[in-house]
Amino acid sequence: MSGSRTIREIRLALVLCAFAMTDPHRLFALDPNRTVGQHIITRWGSDTFPGGAINAIAQTPDGFLWIGAENGLVRFDGVNFRLIDHKSTPSLPPSPVLGLMVDPQGWLWVRMQSPFLMRYRGGKFEQMYPETVPPEFTFAREEGAAALARGIRGDALIATPGGALRNGNGAFRPIVSAGVANGNPMSIAETADGAVWVGMRDTGLFCVRDGRASHIGLPDQKVNVLLPGIGPELWVGTDSGLLHWNGRTISRDRIPEAFSRSRILALARDRDSNLWISTPSGVARMDPNRFTVEGTGAKLPGAAHAIFEDREGNLWFGGTEGLVQLRDAPFLSYKDLASEGGSLYSSPTGRTWIAPSSGGLLWIRGGAHGQIAIPGMAGDVVYSVDGGPDELWIGRKAGGVTRIQEAAGALQTRTYTARDGLAPGVVYAVHRGRDGSVWAGMLSGAVSRIGDGRVTTFTSADGLSSDSVTTIQETSDGTIWVGTTGGLEAYRGGKWRRYGGEDGLPPGRVNSLAPDREGRLWIGSASGLFCWSGSRMVSIRNAAESLQGEIYGLVADHAGSLWATMDHNVVSIPVASLLRDSKEPVAVRQFGIADGLPSTRGIRRDHSVTKDSSGRIWFSLEGGVCVVNPSLPSALAPALVNVESVMVDGRPLDAGPVARYRSSSRRVVFNFIGLSLAIPGRVRYRYRLDGYDSDWSQPSEIREAAYTSLKPARYTFRVLASNSEGLWNGTPASVPLEVEPQLRETWWFQTAALCLAAGLVLSAIRYRLNRAHAAMNLRFEERLAERNRIARELHDTLLQSFQGLMLRLQVVDNLLPPGKAKEQLEIGLERADQAILEGRNAVHELRSSSSVPNDLAQAVKALGDELATQDSPDFHILVEGTARELHPIIRDEFFGITREALRNAFRHASARRIETEIVYGKRMLRLRIRDDGRGIPLEILEAGRSGHYGLFGMRERAGKIGAKLEIWSATGAGTEIELSLAGSIAYRSTTGRSFFLFPRRKQVDK
Does pTM top 0.85 for this prediction? Predict the structure, then answer.
């Protein structure tokens, strides 16, 4: 059934053709289904290519393209050419490069003008032949490599006037051991059966098998080029044409006439086994079956002396006219068809219909295309096209809706107009429903349905808006969706419903509707991209910048992506990323002219993007029609990334195994490049510096990374590159980096500086403490001297005067007779004696009395014995450490505080046990007094008892000498008093202290 439909459609096209445009031209380029104009051709002439005439092309494993030219060796990274000549590289001879070859180890073999054969890798050249190196490079006409080729094992083969040689273990060895291969060699090759072939300038072709050379007769004795084929096959290019060795004989069988007499300049075989042949008249391609030959004419340069296919499948041609690249692109363009754009429809039989904006109706299938004329359509414009298996429906500007159908070998058309009930006005959108009915949308805002033998028209009276209809689609649930200049409307269950702002769809023009396999409806509007999930409207909130703006055309492919056209963009968007709940922008792939598009400007027309039965996506753009197959995997290899240089403060750094520089340098810059020769401008980079960056950088086309003020440490710089199709290389290029510290940044210098600084700080603290200690001792000495002076003055003046007065009064007492006066005087004398005694005791307190010995423990014990009575509590004294001589002021104040504390304990505590502990620590003098008595109420402990100054006096004494006094007590819990003072202040001598102020501890201070 489908076959009959195909026949009828072809017959229909033939019948309706007003004139045939079935151009028979076929392209034999990278894709045999494309014409030369549908490939991307890039040229570099003498104004941009520095090498002059090109003789050879090769590619090293790192991705660089090498070009052997008249001016020397040229390296190409896809963006820049670098001429490597004798001036820039003295190790390279000053001569043209005639041949190039890359071996499995990555060495680039460079055949110079005789006699030099060089080998290059890692920035260094080695001379391989002849083995004796002249003192200076000259153009000496010694025997050298006249031809260079790669053997089947990857080794280098050369042909010299003396014979054929093979390189092994770094040295060349003769291949011929028997027979003679005389002449001036021009080419050499090895076929898969192990035979080595040498083509001569004047003696024809020689074959070497198992070391024995034999002559092969040729019609022409000048062999220009040899190319191994499949198995034992060999292609031989001579001045008289192309010859073929089939393993047994040389012949011209099945070689097209175009190559049987032409001079053959270069040969190459691509990965599809197509043979590329260069002659003085141009480059041509012959398919593997040798049935068809297509010349490229003016599309490619004539007289190409080098043809090469790179790792990405691009073909390169080099000759006297410069360098040319021929590559495939994702999009196949038809620039000559409907350059102004129009509506599209792809029929089930593979024919794509195009309704140009200028009028008429075109079709295209494979390499054929044509135009049909419909009666009454002259001067009319088709706005929309749709159809079914046996029919085509078109919406016309002035003539309603027309159905085109073939029956009984004849064309039948039927046009529906207002007379048939169709809504009047311009038909802008046409859609054929699943049930066979046809929906037509008018610029007047009405919608008509043609089906069941009648026409039904819906207007605003039926619930429609009056907005102009722009597109019509149907979803899997049978709902008819109508896009208008004001929004979106749906017809289901016999009713119309409008979707607007309350549903999440902003008002404005809806240009395109695209149902997907999951039942969702994607909406391309003037406000961007939206989705109807079946129950609600979803706005794409994380849309990338390239997806912002009005969407003209939209379609969903079979692989789960949307394809859209905009004012200046053609993009594809994975549906999964659109529906992902993430704040990251949607992954959008943007296409341009480099991808084969005729332009990037979409058009505002119904069905400007459509999908055919094979899943290909067709686009109608300003500039022409194009198609892409989303299901075809990318043939492009990932980009190869190389770190070209490391610059430190503007100076190149010798990388070596590890790149090193001093931290005194401020800025380090890594220059890198990703080798993808297809579309080098699309290469993107991500990098990170391990030890500094926490994550990869955002993708960018910038080819350098800069870091400033890195701290001394070990780092590793890593960089990834993606090719034009977003494919990232798996293993990043890396450069180890070490920032070496300056003297002041070394660990031992910093440790020494820290120790020195700590020593200086501690010395300063010690100095200040010594000063403070000396000042305090001075104050103590002054206080002691003042007390001694007061005691001396009191003793020498007041007490002596009182003593003299007492003597006089005693004389008077002796003179008085017994009686009341005498009694009173004696009572006064006794009291005066008591006052003198108290005065002497006070003077004794002021001076360093022997009654209070320097041994504090002994003094406290004597005080306890003095206070003890028959009913007094048990008194114990504990001493820890070696007794030290105390400063007199400190001794007196400690004793005074202890005396007050013990008096209170003996008299008021009602304790059963009183304990005194004295600790002579190296750093601290500590005294504790504990009892198990009734304790001190909290309010008395804090404020003291009215009229009593014991606690207040104790705190006052401790404060005068800088001691710390702490009292713990509670009612019924006993009392503990602790008095502590730094040993440097308390002790008379401070010998034995360490340099850092604090003595080493030999026991725990309590």
Answer: no
